[in-house]
């Protein structure tokens, strides 16, 4: 287990407070509240407010907008894990006649289903959901703007379809399923589809004057799975722990890791920005730090939840203004401040409880042609294979019951590694997706494709 002192250092806490104070002042937010999570629990809460003596605490609700999508994605992944659906299934299999049924469930989760970004008709975030009672009102006459699966195009209607899918397969309203299967098990008692006191009011701030205008609070109706929820920094801190570690009552660690894995082709601008999308989660690279989570906005509110799994730190930032501080940047800075000031302390090295002699035999150097690789046993029961030095293809592999190993990442993800033995049972070579790895570079007598010159290695006479 990683060991930290109980609380953040005073200097770290002051740096965090300074960052949100600058964000609230320069972004002209009526209020801004934030939390930092480390080692599975909230270790810091901070707030700034335009009203002296009324800074919100961690239990004040704000609208969280599109962070709702991550909750909806969790419900869909639960259906997958139960075997009710497959992510490769077309939507048409479960919701026929939408006009968008060609898109698969995975493509809808990753915003690659080709759907429009918004609904037809008036701005859905500022008008009653009763104006869009059916899916046809959400999708319009031309649901698809792009070829299915070809590009990442963020789509709010796509998550309305996923919410409708949950309702169809569970036989209950989306909000009831969410309460029963996610909110209650995770103890998110201050998260829900409607505000409960204490909650912040939503404001628009005049762009050229320090003046306020109240924003309407609308029930989004059919669009609820895309952005309806209200929550608090305390609840979202707990949700961040779940998204980093999993919880078998809701989703396994393996499934939440899948949510955090890129699933969408990046646009050219996204490549420059180092951003992509998983299954209900945004993924970005900021200053060499991989950050996953989601942002959210609705008229009167901004929200961001960001997690650095490698640093074991998460941040939540909420504000009650339509536009103003860039919360994704604020959250990324909170992560950086903690990670740099108080870096994660690694768990102590410990030897394996037991050693499999057959696997131990495989460890050490191997050669793909002339390139040197090394195979290692890892403490988690896997093996790793990668170049002895420098860049190159590397991956971890999981053992299968038939004696082969399956690649878990990178170039070798899903590829099979097979141990080839001689008639006497000794190891001849490794076969990895047709690539042959031998104990010596171009080893004589090994099954190297194309053969090995029988005269062996030689010099050149001058």
Automatic annotation (TrEMBL):
InterPro entries: AmpC-like (IPR050491), Beta-lactam-related (IPR001466), Beta-lactam/transpept-like (IPR012338), DUF7586 (IPR056008)
Residue ranges of domain DUF7586 in the record: 355-439
Residues in Beta-lactamase-related domain copies: 23-337
PANTHER family with a match to the protein in the record: D-ALANYL-D-ALANINE CARBOXYPEPTIDASE, D-ALANYL-D-ALANINE-CARBOXYPEPTIDASE/ENDOPEPTIDASE AMPH
Name of the protein in question: Beta-lactamase
Species lineage: Bacteria, Bacillati, Actinomycetota, Actinomycetes, Kitasatosporales
